[in-house]
Amino acid sequence: MSNQVAQGQNLDDFLINLADGLTQAQSRLNRAPVLNAYGQEALVYHIPKMEFELKLDMTSTSSSSAKQSSKTKLAFRPSSPTNQTQSASSVIRGVMVATPIDSGRPTPVIILSAEKSSTSRVKLEVRGRNSLGEPLSNSVVEINIDRELSAKLNKQEQRGGLNRGTQLSLATLTLDAQGYASCQLNIAKTEPKNQIIAISADLFSQTETLLYRHQ
């Protein structure tokens, strides 16, 4: 972590600088796991918290313009024995604590797959579970054809992309008790071969994209 603390007009600048340094330190630890005797990754160090103490000098500054009266602002800088211009000084103590994403709740996982039924029909299967492997039953999944992405992948931006007849049988799916649901992709008969059709499925905060090539 850097020993330098950036100067700024607000206390936020110093706190953000500390948080950035902490993030960089944890990132370096993540890239350097401890190996066991067999050369396998055994553990990774984790910084649970960081206590800090900031000693700042506050200097008042004034600014004025033709339309506004003079305003006084406070500028902050790290305390230094050689600084003779400060109007006041302050010590800020605190703790930065590691907090798991989503308050530690298991994160949702979505799996999207395709199975060709016929020349113009494709069965799309969606499976939803959490990171513990538990099915997300009764959850609603939004499923769409990403026509913009499909056009870019097929380099058809100037030709309008996929045929309008290429559609999904359903726009929303409800997962059953096993966390499973399905719908049908109907491909227009005029759709050229080897077209890439991008399908996206959204479940809570997760999005899965499937690229299906029409054969």
TrEMBL record:
Biased composition (Low complexity): 62-73
Lineage top rank: taxon: Bacteria
Region called Disordered, residue ranges: 62-91
Residue stretches of biased makeup (Polar residues): 79-90
Name of the protein this chain belongs to: Ig-like domain (Group 1)
Source species: Neptuniibacter pectenicola
